[in-house]
């Protein structure tokens, strides 16, 4: 299929541009959910954001900064985590296509809700937001940042960030990665339609690098330490506490990783 991307030289945030495109009616959808453009990417992003309102570090033309439009008959605003897991799998498999199959390649996987980890460091992430199109229907905006050919990082994040180039792996252009992700989103949307969300969830679980990590969980002014034991059938993070009780975490803002080595 033909992938259509809106490509900008510079933008404050592709997420904001995508939202403006929906508000103005620039992006419309076919009956099957296919958008006028599959996404918007920029060579330079000056005000990118990540999880918990954090800023996203990106070097022009060395890091993908893009937002994709996603709508299907099976997704609703009440279950955003399902689209979040689908997006994470799509992005990771696009990266895997670039890397190829290599016996000596460093481990690549996902940390809930959707950090892309390579060799234990963060090389990218996915942020999901909701917006309404001109027709009044909801659209999932899938914001994606991926470090492709970044050779090095500022000292403040050098110990926790990485890129394909830094790990000695094959890289690609921003346009090529954006097209691969768009194609994978279409592919996994079709898989979900054919086999249900369980097929997406099990694929996500096969890439899960969250299990065994220790988190501080905060609720109603109280803090408890729990160990991640997986994701629930609905796609929420499952934490187990010292007393054996478990809780399903629905939002990343209620937890904080304690940065101990996973089991």
Q: Please, could you describe this protein's structure?
A:
It is a single chain. By secondary structure, this protein is an alpha+beta fold. It folds into two domains: 5-206, BirA Bifunctional Protein, domain 2 (2-Layer Sandwich); 214-257. The protein contains four helices and twelve strands. The strands form two sheets. Strands 1-2-3-7-6-5-4 form a seven-stranded mixed β-sheet, sandwiched between helices. Helix 3 packs across helix 4 (197-206). The chain starts with a strand and ends in a 6-residue tail after the last strand. The mean pLDDT is 91.
Question: Which helices and strands appear, and what pairs or packs with what?
Answer:
Elements: E1 5-8, H1 14-24, E2 39-42, E3 63-70, H2 80-99, E4 108-111, E5 115-118, E6 121-132, E7 138-147, H3 174-195, H4 197-206, E8 214-219, E9 222-231, E10 237-241, E11 246-249, E12 255-257
Parallel strand pairs: 1-2
Antiparallel strand pairs: 2-3, 3-7, 4-5, 5-6, 6-7, 8-9, 8-12, 9-10, 10-11
Helix pairs in contact: 2-3, 2-4, 3-4
């Amino acid at each position: 299929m033909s992938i259509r991307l809106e490509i900008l030289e510079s933008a404050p945030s592709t997420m904001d541009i995508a939202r403006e495109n929906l508000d103005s009616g620039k992006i419309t959808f076919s009956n099957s959910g296919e958008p006028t453009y599959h996404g918007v990417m920029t060579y330079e992003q000056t005000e990118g954001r990540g999880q918990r309102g954090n800023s996203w570090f990106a070097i022009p033309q060395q890091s993908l900064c893009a937002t994709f439009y996603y709508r299907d008959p099976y997704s609703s605003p009440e279950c955003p985590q399902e689209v979040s897991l689908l997006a994470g799998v799509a992005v990771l498999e696009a990266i895997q296509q670039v890397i190829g199959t290599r016996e000596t390649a460093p481990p690549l996987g996902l940390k809930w809700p959707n950090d892309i980890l390579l060799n234990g460091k963060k090389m990218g992430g996915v942020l999901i937001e909701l917006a309404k199109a001109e027709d009044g229907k909801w659209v999932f905006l899938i914001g994606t940042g991926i470090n492709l050919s970044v050779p090095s990082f500022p000292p403040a994040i050098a110990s926790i960030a990485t890129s394909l180039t830094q790990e000695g792996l094959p890289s690609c252009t921003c346009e090529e990665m954006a097209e691969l992700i768009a194609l994978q989103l279409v592919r996994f949307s079709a898989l979900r339609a054919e086999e249900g969300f369980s097929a997406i969830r099990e694929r996500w679980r096969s890439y899960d690098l969250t299990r065994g990590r220790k988190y501080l969980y905060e609720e109603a002014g109280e803090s408890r330490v729990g160990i991640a034991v997986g994701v629930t059938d609905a796609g929420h993070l499952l934490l187990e506490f010292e007393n054996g009780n478990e809780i399903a975490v629905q939002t990343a803002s209620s937890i904080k990783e304690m940065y101990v080595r996973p089991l």
